[in-house]
Specification:
This protein has five helices and five strands; from the N terminus they run αββααβααββ. By secondary structure, it is an alpha+beta fold. A three-stranded antiparallel sheet has the order 3-5-4. A two-stranded antiparallel ribbon has the order 1-2. Helix 1 packs across helix 5, helix 3 packs across helix 4 and helix 4 packs across helix 5.
């Protein structure tokens, strides 16, 4: 197992409802377990999200102007490859950003700076 996979699985193991789709709050059953087991297939997405987020200045509190789904699209555009919502959330958690799940949603708010400080492609 490589370092990137270890980092991803460490985050995932600390967040019981995090799948590659996002926070599956209250989910259970075989489908949910399959989503959890699929994480190793998303290491490239996690890596792209890490690369992008390492260029984004953090703030002390979550930024409610953008949810994780909006951020994943910004990361995709910059990295030139697909990034799942859950991979973006996992990368933010790994890097120590504040992450706040949004009730009733797969998405989360993350403590990223405003869009003008995001890396451009």
């Amino acid at each position: 197992m490589g370092e990137m996979e270890k980092a991803l699985l460490q985050v995932v193991n600390g967040h019981a409802f995090l799948t590659w789709r996002g926070f599956e709050t209250g989910a259970a059953g075989a489908e949910f377990q399959n989503l959890r087991k699929a994480w190793p297939d998303h290491i490239g997405e996690f890596s792209r999200a890490l690369d992008w987020l390492q260029c984004v200045p953090p703030r002390l509190t979550v930024n409610r102007d953008f949810d994780s789904y909006r951020l994943k699209h910004a990361a995709e555009h910059w990295a030139g490859g697909y990034v799942s919502n859950g991979a973006l959330i996992a990368a933010a958690l790994h890097l120590g950003f504040v992450v706040e799940p949004i009730a009733g949603s797969l998405n989360a708010y993350i403590s990223v700076s405003g869009e003008t400080k995001w890396p451009k492609s």
